[in-house]
User: What shape does this take?
Amino acid sequence: MELAGSKEHDVRTPERETRDAIIRRSLGEAIGNLRDQMGGQVKDWQWGSIHQVRFNHVFGAHPILARVFNIGPFPVGGAHSTVNVSQYFLSAPFDAAVGPSTRQLFDLSDRNATQAVTPPGQSGQVFSRHYADQIQLWLNGGMRGMPMERSIVERSCKELLTLMPVP
Assistant: This one.
């Protein structure tokens, strides 16, 4: 274990710095980087202005198709250690790469009081009205009712998709 003020070494410099000097320089570099990204007024800094989520479709990897298929970016909170997890990788600083893919709330006393949200929407079909219809709910912590009783589901159903096996 090193003692405070002990000699450390930054291999990028010829001299030996103290640990405290390395920490001060690192903090100064981090603040400079944040100023470059978010401006000089610390009071105006918002985590979501650099920490953002995008919902990328496989076809959106092509620059011409990205505006049609990809959804976002949107500012998000969270970090790797928060309840609303939203972590990023150092290879793409601050782009939210991991987060909740769905949120569900189950009321065990009333199975029809279940609530859920699936970002960015329930459909993977880009031209469906359900492709991105839940993004605002998800971003704002909201959910939709998701009854479990068949008769209630059938009464509230607006569309039906039937999947048939190929013979």
Q: What stands out?
A: Residues 38 and 46 are 8 Å apart (CA to CA). Residues 1-42 form one domain. The chain has two domains: 1-42, 48-156.
